[in-house]
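Case study 2.
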Amino acid sequence: MTDQHFDYDLFVVGAGSGGVRAARIAAGHGARVAVAEEHKVGGTCVIRGCVPKKLLVYGAHFAEDLDDAAMFGWDIPERRFDWPTLRDNVLAEVSRLEGLYGETLANHKVTVFKTRAVLTGPNSLSLADGRTITAGKILLAPGARPALPDVPGIEHAITSNDVFHLERLPKRVVIAGGGYIANEFAGIFHQLGAHVTIVNRSDTILRGYDEQIVDRLVKISVAKGIDFRFNAGFEALEQQEDGSILCRMRGTQDIVADEVLFAIGRLPNTEELGLDRLGVKLTERGAIVVDKEYRSSVPSIFAVGDVTDRVQLTPVAIREGHAFADTQFGGHPCVVDYDNIPSSCFSHPPIGLVGLTESQAKNKLGVIRTYTSDFRPMKYVLAGRNERALYKLVVDEGSDRVVGVHLIGPDAPEILQGAAIAVKAGLTKADFDATVALHPTMAEELVLMR
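Prediction:
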């Protein structure tokens, strides 16, 4: 396996979730491995994505929890939120995790170059410090970045990367986009006390999610005070003398905000990597085209994770990195199964989903059955909160298999993980019905729908 003609058997560009997993597993198989990372070890998820965002979600949840606490006998006379405390504690946790990722690579004897790497050949790279490295195989895992539109004054806007470093909490926030990132930050900012306006270019948010679940999220969000502007766009952003930003709009009235956050999608980080000179095939969006073994059009160059623009989820990147390393260095060829991948939106309330939506199931399977449970969580009943949860099962009529589970309500993603196993295993509605309920829980609704 080791080829002494090269400096390394594997060189990984990008120390995110997929790259770190591939490097660690390949090194465990005996390969000589190096990684180049120009920012911080851990990638989008750990440094500027899933982890710090989820910590902000937890922080935001305390707003309603403190309100509800009174009905449970707690007297909390003073409520005061301090943004710098939450921000700095989140960043400290990010730094701790970055250190752990670095330790993992070091423990597996993976060499880490904290600099940028550019491909100069099928088996060679140039580091920003001038060194040239050769490798038998090159794995590209540089991830993706937030997309920004070509709008005058766009330099006054921020992306999800910037939220974790804001000096102060804005009182008015405009969020462009209708995907999960936009809705998650809408919930965070709203619960922390900001007035939030979501601007979406179409009349649909969360494309690919079950329509009934999305409709419930919109209704709850509007009831909480989040403003939606559909079929609208930005003409320009103008910074005012007081530091605020005037959003010149089309399709709706102009909006004044303290921060304008663009969450309109993410683009693969393939620019200035030298791929064009080597003939690495890319999609129109700039993603690396790979086969089932994650090999690009250049046989010695591979890619995993968001840079391939297939399923931009951290657990998927991890699975891909592991599969690549086992296949190329472990003698255990394997591929990732992309069917029934569970996902979530940590909105307020959160959404969990796996499998087919109702419309997707009708198009694919024809005759289906759906079951729903529309209920008020026990905690909300005592707290006097009228917000309702909605659980939905999608069942194939012919086989009785549960082909989709869709939840919106407290802790929906936590509950969904167990249900995702059932869907992946091909269990039937009869199997769900035969399962004794765990009472009193919200999750028991999954086995009580008739």
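The longest strand covers residues 132-140.
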